[in-house]
Amino acid sequence: MDLVVEPRLCIETVLGEHTLKVVINGGRSHYGSLIFGLLVLAGILPSSSSTTRRFQFNVEWKNVTRLCHTKQLLTVNGKYPGPTINVNEGDNVEIKVRNSVARNTTIHWHGVRQLRTGWADGPAYVTQCPIQGGHTYTYKFTVVGQRGTLWWHAHFSWQRVSVHGAFIINPQMPFPFSTPFQAEIPILLGEWWNEDTEMTEKEMMLYGDGPNASDAYTINGLPGSMYPCSNKDTFVHAIERGKTYLLRIINAALNQELFFTVANHTLTVVEVDAVYTKPFRTTAIMITPGQTTNVLLTANQFPDSTGMFLMAARPYLTSVFPFDNSTTIGFLKYEGTFTKQIISPYTSLPHTLPRMEDTTFASTFLKNLRSLASAEYPCNVPKRIDKRVIVTISLNLQDCPPNKTCKGYKGKRYFASMNNQSFVRPTMSILECHYRNISTNAITSDFPDKPPHVFDFTGVDPVTQNMNTEFGTKLLAVPYGTKLEIVLQDTGFLNVENHPIHVHGHNFFIVAKGFGNFNAAKDPARYNLVDPQERNTVAVPVGGWAAIRLNADNPGVWFIHCHLEEHTTWGLAMGLIVKSGQGPSQCLLPPPNDLPSC
Asked: Which carries the bigger pLDDT value, residue 579 or residue 23?
């Protein structure tokens, strides 16, 4: 089946007794300003009376030293991590990105819904062609109905290892939790490689092996004193006793889910993925790449003479592949303690930091997450669905091609797939093909809505049973407004594993999770349709499944993929087409004039 395309983009609205009808057909419009003005007049786009926040991003190299290794690191504005974007709910946002390096790049605003502005979403070859070296592109979008902690990152190759930062949306209404806070502390968790990660990725794909593990985890770009040469590269933040702080925690790591804790302090979870939750207290959190978690911390302890309380993050391990078996630490330092600050490399870890294999803690923590479901912040989970899609998530062993060297298990190559389809990014923008009526056999809308073969998904022998995956760019297409359920089913090929699956362009509700195989006859009876957690990235349980529901009300093409970068590179991804609806607010907007070309 060929790619579903819009026959023409027709934007129609009523102005008094008259009808304004703008028809854009193929090609890049030479009447962009006129059309933009008409759309503003029609109320389809925000007017200039709305606040517009403008930012400048310059993608550039910077020499950075960690663990006694200095290397050129790709950065935005020379900062690692990158600058924080701070806007208000309802703002128009314009971010001009200048690519000053001889590499392609794009930027994704992770979790921003991009209502009808898919051109600003960012994944390379899905919603745009990359920004080439020496070129610029201005991402323009409006933050609608969202507030809280999100983040931004590069969405080309493995560039997000260093090209990332926080994206904060200040709410229009007061915070709904009863405990007020006096200050905010951003906590960006990441990974550091001494080697060039571009070469790490290339070698992985050249030989079909797993990637080299990172050399350190980081807190706000700093590995902490448990690593070599890192006493001075340890994050320390001053706090005052008696005050409450909002920690905005972001997992920006490439390939690792993480546990996080603060010694002797209780964390109160109040938000995940920029959605308020019913508050609950915990000693630690589990957070996957792509996710954000806001917690309240009250400085109510009596410190010793150093005034220091350790915070730590280490991996949540569900894979048999090599990994970085280390821990990053930082400190919260109570003010008013005057002992000279001494950071020792031999620091004992908090007892509240879960063990690396602690799936019980991870599962319990995630089960405690519930939507606020209040009158001000309702939980709009679809009670009934129009379509259910069951998607297997697999790691695959592929036979080695003739005359090639393969270094995966048994001399084969590693790939990954969804419903045994390994996603291949085309050499053009899928969204442009969809919008401009470009039909190609390379991009089709026949992604299978159920596994091609039914078997004991989580009970297979991990090394003796395998399926060679198929390669292509197959998309799932649904009409505007479809109430869609996607059941994400882990499989046991190579090993069962926890997978963080991110959906672009939509929030969704996690109505149920379970271990083993999803049972369509029994499991829906225990769905939570009252206050399920709302997110943009779901942790599919190791050896289990997760059922999510969403309202497909955002026309365009949207990437769905694992946020473990090695798995996305291996093909663990798919695309979702939401067709335009009937009214003016249900249509994809025209592309900007500066949209990059391939």
From this structure: 579
